[in-house]
Amino acid sequence: MKHIIPVLALSLLTLSASAQQPNTLTAKEKKAGWKLLFDGKTTQGWHTYLQSEASPAWKVENGALALDQEAKKNGAPGGDLVTNDEFENYELSLEWKISEGGNSGVIFGVHEDPQLKATYLSGPEMQVLDDAKHPDGKYEKHNSGDLYDMKKSTKYAAKPVGEWNVAKIRKKDGKLTFWLNGVQTIETTMGSDEWKTLLENSKFKNWKAFAQYPKGHIALQDHGDGVWYRSVKIRLL
Fold it and tell me: So which residues are the signal peptide here (predicted)?
């Protein structure tokens, strides 16, 4: 029995030491082609939609991209934060944390055009939400992990407000797969018969630019609430 405690302690220390730090890549990830989209320190590689750089409302806070509502109240312009680069076939992984009663989203396939004044006019969205306290939480297809307003998650997988969630989007030749905290929540193929039905039954059915761009920017949504993103990384397919 005297050996059990030291062995257990060693196991816990090993587990702790092997835990990956936010905004880093393991050797295995680097070999597989993963790249960081956020360095954990600056907004380099990002800009506010239709702007040349990131709005002051988006700042780096404790290693996370944070939407600062106080800054907005003091006059700093907001807006969705988008990648400088465009992507077509990829796996995207990130962690998010939402404020109490908050709403945000990860929008992809975003086309940047002055005639399109918002990211969501062209890009589908993986919902980010305080499902319990935001009004959207009462609506089907509006909960965390859903393909927003198009398809409901097969299983609810979000963590409570204040905890970090790990989200993953895989987009390959139009096939979409979402995971939230290791649980597959969505699978569908853009342009398929199922997709056309989902689109017809959504608010986007008459939006001419919606989901029309195979290659586009990735956006973090400013929906007017506090939200944090970190460990944003991508692997091209």
Answer: 1-19
- Quote the tokens at residue 10: 């060693």
Unique residue bearing structure tokens 């305080």 = 130
Element (DSSP H or E) covering residue 6: helix 4-18
Grouping H, G, I as helix, E, B as strand and the rest as coil, residue 159 is coil
Dist CA 5 CA 110 (whole Å)? 53
CA neighbor of 96 nearest in space, from 86, 85, 87, 107: 107
What is the residue-averaged pLDDT of the chain? Answer: 92
Q: What CATH number corresponds to the domain at position 52? A: 2.60.120.560
Number of domains in the chain: 1
Ordered DSSP codes for 109-129: EE--BTTB-SGGGT--EEEEE
Does residue 13 lie in a domain region? no
| Rounded CA separation 168/156 (Å) | 15
Q: Domain range for residue 180?
A: 23-236
**pTM here?**
0.91
Assigned domain for 139 exists: yes
- Please name the residues in contact with 88: beta carbons below 8 A apart, sequence gap of 6 or more: 171, 214, 215, 216
pLDDT for residue 6 is more than 70: no
What sign does the dihedral 159-165-166-170 (CA atoms) show?
Answer: positive
Provide mean pLDDT across the span 76-103. 96
**Run of H or E residues at 235:** strand 227-236
Residue 203 falls inside a structural domain: yes
16, part of any domain: no
The neighbour count for residue 67, using CB atoms within 10 Å, is 28
- pLDDT for residue 7 is more than 70: no
Nearest to 131 by CA among 106, 100, 107, 105: 100
